[in-house]
Amino acid sequence: MQHSYTQDIDEQLRQMEELAAGSDSRSGNSADYKSHKSASKTTSNTSFSFKGLILSLLSVAFFLIFAMLFLPRITLWIFESVPSLYLSVFGAYALLSIGLLLLLSIGVRLTIGRFKVGKWLFRAVFVFVGIASLYSLLYLSNTNVKDPSVRETFTNLHPVLRIGVTTAVLVDSDLIVTNLGRTKQDYIKWGLTPRERSLHYVQPETGYVHALDLRTIGRPEWLNQFTELTFKAMGFHTYRHVGTADHLHVALPVE
């Protein structure tokens, strides 16, 4: 009887070991399944989408065109609250940077499935915008001026108009600026009666010239009209008139 009792205990121990082994096997399979599922989810979240990349690039291109066209308007809008031209320009480009970063973040999400943007992208965007702002405020190519003397007086032009000119040059590389600043002596030299007031004079309120002239002679009329529409879209006042020659007059929308 004692032997039978011992056999019963051994049988119960064997059954317990089998149950424990089965439980460990099921736990291992469950862990493997969860690990595989997590890996699959990570792979699907980081999968590359060519369609998303194309959509992102097109969105960024349209955003930059839209932003550059409306940048002068935004600058003037900020200038109404912040009485500093350069702070207004900086603020407008800062808004452009924020908008571009948001769009790029969405683009990354559409392309690789994650809404994570590295610090390098923030730096790259702000460097790009900073270079663009300095370029638009300080540089005008010799190929876009009537003569070097016009280029030398480019920084006398109102900063918002400078942004407008450099933006228009990106659209029309053959654009020619024929005149920026004038004086009463210039009118006398041209055989014209000097004007008492002109936006081509340095304005005492800002210390900048508020108007410029663009060449229209020798250019297709459709291109002249397109240039005029471009400046109007940016918020400037434009009109064609015949003075010393037929030209397009572009001025700030404020006196």
Descriptive notes:
- The chain has helices at about 1-45, 50-80, 85-110, 120-140, 150, 160-170, 185-190, 220-235; strands at about 175-180, 210-215, 235-240, 245-250.
- The protein is α+β, with helices and mostly antiparallel strands and about 260 residues long.
- It has three domains: about 1-35; about 50-140, no CATH class; about 140-250, Muramoyl-pentapeptide Carboxypeptidase, domain 2, CATH 3.30.1380.
- Helix 2 runs antiparallel to helix 6 (about 160-170) and helix 4 (about 120-140) packs across helix 6.
- The longest helix has about 45 residues, at about 1-45.
- The chain is elongated and about 125 Å long.
- The protein starts with a helix and ends with a strand.
Instruction: Tell me the β content.
Output: 5-15%
CATH architecture of the largest domain: 2-Layer Sandwich
Counting DSSP E segments of at least 2 residues, the number of strands comes to 4
Examine the coordinates and then state which fold CATH places here, giving the name of the CATH topology of the largest domain.
Muramoyl-pentapeptide Carboxypeptidase, domain 2
**Strand-pairing-aware structural class:** alpha+beta
Helix content: 55-70%
What's the overall average pLDDT, rounded?
Answer: 75
Order of neighbouring strands in the sheet with most strands = 1-2-4-3
Largest sheet: 4 strands, antiparallel
Give the CA-based shape. elongated
How many structural domains does the protein architecture include?
3
Radius of gyration: 34 Å
| Low-pLDDT segments | 33-45
Helix count equals: 8
CATH class membership of the largest domain? Alpha Beta
Q: In angstroms, what separates the terminal alpha carbons?
A: 118 Å
Multimeric organization: single chain
- In N-to-C order, the SSE pattern is HHHHHHEHEHEE
